[in-house]
Structure formats: C-alpha cells, structure tokens
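Severity: low
Component: inverse-folding endpoint
Summary: output formatting inconsistent between runs
Steps to reproduce: submit the following structure tokens with default settings.
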C-alpha cells in the first residue's frame, strides 16, 4: 500500500504551479513541522530564506529527524530524502520557525511556514511531541476555554499575515490540527478572511465553550478534518465539521501515525465510516466528559499531572524508567484524600460510560461482520 513517501515519488515531479497544494501535500507539510529546524530555518518571514530542499539536506547532514511521539526516524530520513529531490516540494522557501516550551505555562508550541513558488503560503503547526508538558496541555483542552498554544497559534497567524501577502492554508497533525483550526477562527477578523482552507489531520476538537462561540460559524466550511478508520485522538472532544475517514494499515492507536495513511494517486483512500471501536471510544469519552463539570475535569487532570511531575521524567518514555516509577508511586501514596477520591470517582464514571456505550458497539460490530460476509 502507498503512503506519503510513495506520493512524493509519484507526484514529486509536478510543480505546484501546475497542480496546486492538495490534501496529501498538506499532510506532508504538516508532518514536516515535527522536524527540529533550529539553526536551519529563521524566525523571520522574509529576507534570505532556505529552500525546503536545503533545509531537508541540513537535517539529514545533522542526523536530525522528527519529534513526533512515534519512533519514525528511518521513515523520516526517507521522507526528507524524497523532499530534497522533489520538484514539487524542494523549491518551497521555509520561514517563520518557532519552537517554545514553557513548563510554568504548561505550553508546547511550534510552527513553521512554507512558501510555494505559486499559491497560498502554508502554515504548519506541530502536534504533540514526547514531552510530559505537551501532553498536559492537550488534556487541559478538556476544561479550559483556551490553552497557551492556541493563543500563540492565533498570534502566529496574525504575525505571518503582517509579513506576507496573499492567502493562507493552515494545517497540522494531532494537536497541530487543533491549533490550525483554532488560529483560523480566532485570528484577527481581517486575517481570517485570508485563510483559504484548514487541514486538521487526526487532531482533537474543542470543548463545549469554544464550539458554541459565534466565531466558529464563519470558518466551519473551510475546515477539513481527516481521521483514520480507528481514530482515537482525532475524535476527542467536540467537532462541528464532518470527519473524512482515511484508510490506514496501522493497528489501533498506531493509525495516528501519518505514514500508515493509505493513498492512491493524488488523494487518500477514503472510507464511508469509522470502525466500531473508534465510535465506541467517541461515545464513551463524550458521555463521560458531559457528566463532568469543567472544574471537575481540571481537578482530575491536575491531580494526575502532579503525581507524574513528582518524577524527573521530561518525556513520556522517561516516566517508565524504574527511578521515575518509584517517584510516581511515592507521590501517589502522598496524594490527599479529596484529590484521590475525585480521581477515583471520575474513573468510575468512565467505566459506567463505557458500559452504556457497549450495546451500540455490539450492534455496529455485528453489522460490520454481516457486510463482510455479504461482500
């Protein structure tokens, strides 16, 4: 089956002047936002800017690859080599690279802008990396009307609009897709008019407060959200735009990895609906969150994060080192009774929500089996 690396081999000789940026191009550029461009791509949006071919070459020479949660270094190398030799991607200029981490604000933010020889500029927002603070900010979206990375995403778009002329396409994978959608909705009014479309690749939605805001009405038609058939991340929280379901050859949560998304020619292989397990997860989590007040959600998330922060682990992988596991267990034992009971009550509610969703899951699974037998 073909993936985004195969796509560059197939379509890499077609310049964007001939065929404008489409959905698969957008996923390629969104994924390239995970690359560590420090010392390679400037923060400025104009001046002497490297081409994407030059940036890819520098990353390959330094042995620097993506910062996504998945271990994809081998595929990242192949992607960068393909991009470097591509007529379609190589000539694009790369600018506006920023990467900010702030433990105190619980913020993990990064973005980069690609300037094709023709057509709109493409702003790519990085998704969640492997840092604990990055994951904490994701969870904060469940109760906060706005998290720091969302504010910075809107401000980034405003700065880009001041420096660059013309239209914009926004995109991102995972949390980056959420940031792209947020920026398009909450940037300055005159800037929002210049956003041609937004690509959200398996990124979570928003809490009820943001979804209900009037600002969303004018942008909804321009947001396209793509999810794999067994999406877990992209179905979190609330969306008002319909999902576009993409076939993935990954297993379960590994379908979040963009390299598993399948395509044919210039587009993704689309499916009519998500899997029963993805629908079960969506129903369970939404029912559970609906029964928790935003304050209750905050107490649960802050309590769990306080325990994890008791260790020296800065990344999710480091949390599982023996010394950090011991520190986490000690912090868990020292948690005050009220917080412990709040967390326990919340997870009991999650279990109850799951049980309420199971009958629908059984019915959908049975129907899937019947369709396969008929087919």
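Observed output (run 2 of 3):
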């Amino acid at each position: 089956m073909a993936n985004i690396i195969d796509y560059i081999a197939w379509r890499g000789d077609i310049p964007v002047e001939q065929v404008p940026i489409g959905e698969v191009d957008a996923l390629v550029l969104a994924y390239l936002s995970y690359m560590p461009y420090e010392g390679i791509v400037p923060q400025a949006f104009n001046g002497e800017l490297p081409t994407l071919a030059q940036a890819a070459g520098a990353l390959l020479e330094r042995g620097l690859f993506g910062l996504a949660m998945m271990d994809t270094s081998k595929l990242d190398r192949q992607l960068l080599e393909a991009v470097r030799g591509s007529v379609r991607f190589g000539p694009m200029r790369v600018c506006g690279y920023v990467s900010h981490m702030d433990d105190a604000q619980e913020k993990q933010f990064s973005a980069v802008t690609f300037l094709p020889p023709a057509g709109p500029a493409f702003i790519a927002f990085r998704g969640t990396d492997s840092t604990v603070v990055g994951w904490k900010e994701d969870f904060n979206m469940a109760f906060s009307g706005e998290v720091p990375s969302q504010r910075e995403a809107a401000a980034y778009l405003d700065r880009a609009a001041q420096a660059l002329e013309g239209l914009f396409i926004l995109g991102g994978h995972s949390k980056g897709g959420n940031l792209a959608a947020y920026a398009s909705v909450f940037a300055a009014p005159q800037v929002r008019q210049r956003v041609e479309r937004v690509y959200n690749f398996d990124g979570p939605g928003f809490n009820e407060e943001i979804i209900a805001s009037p600002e969303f009405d004018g942008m909804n038609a321009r947001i396209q959200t793509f999810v794999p058939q067994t999406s877990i991340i992209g179905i979190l929280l609330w969306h008002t735009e319909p999902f576009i379901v993409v076939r993935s050859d990954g297993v379960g949560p590994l379908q979040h990895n963009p390299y598993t998304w399948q395509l044919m020619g210039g587009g993704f292989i689309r499916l009519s609906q998500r899997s029963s397990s993805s629908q079960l997860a969506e129903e369970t989590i939404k029912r559970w969150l609906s029964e928790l007040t935003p304050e209750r959600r905050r107490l649960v998330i802050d309590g769990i994060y306080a325990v994890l922060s008791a260790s020296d682990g800065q990344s999710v992988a480091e949390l599982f080192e023996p010394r950090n596991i011991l520190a986490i267990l000690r912090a868990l034992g020292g948690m005050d009774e009220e917080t412990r009971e709040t967390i326990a009550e919340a997870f009991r509610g999650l279990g109850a929500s799951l049980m309420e969703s199971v009958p629908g899951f059984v019915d959908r699974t049975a129907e899937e089996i019947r369709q396969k037998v008929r087919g």
